[in-house]
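Q: My labmate handed me this sequence with no annotations at all. I'd like to see what the chain might look like in three dimensions before we decide whether it's worth expressing. Could you predict it?
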Amino acid sequence: MVAIFVVILVILSLIFGSYQIPFGLLVQVERDRLEQERIQEELRRRDEKARLRDEQRARQRALHEAEERRKEKARLQAELTKREQEARIKRETEVARQIEVEASKQREAQAARLRE
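A: Here is what I predict for the chain of 116 residues:
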């Protein structure tokens, strides 16, 4: 854009017969171009920093979510183990009670036979 402006100035100078291009204007145009480049570079750096910051946040969020899933899985596994133990204890208690009932019936039957 700056180059186009300079070319237009040169063409206008040639058309109107003035072969002198104001040096101060060329210096100012060059300063403006350099300032614009500096601003663009600063904006690129800011965008890059923001992108890196966003990527870091996304990684942290993913790690946090993975940790939460791991904790939930461990909690569910512990709950399942607890329920399995409770069911096993309940079955063993029921079997022991049935054995005791059966043994009691056999003792009563044996005692009845002895009385006869």
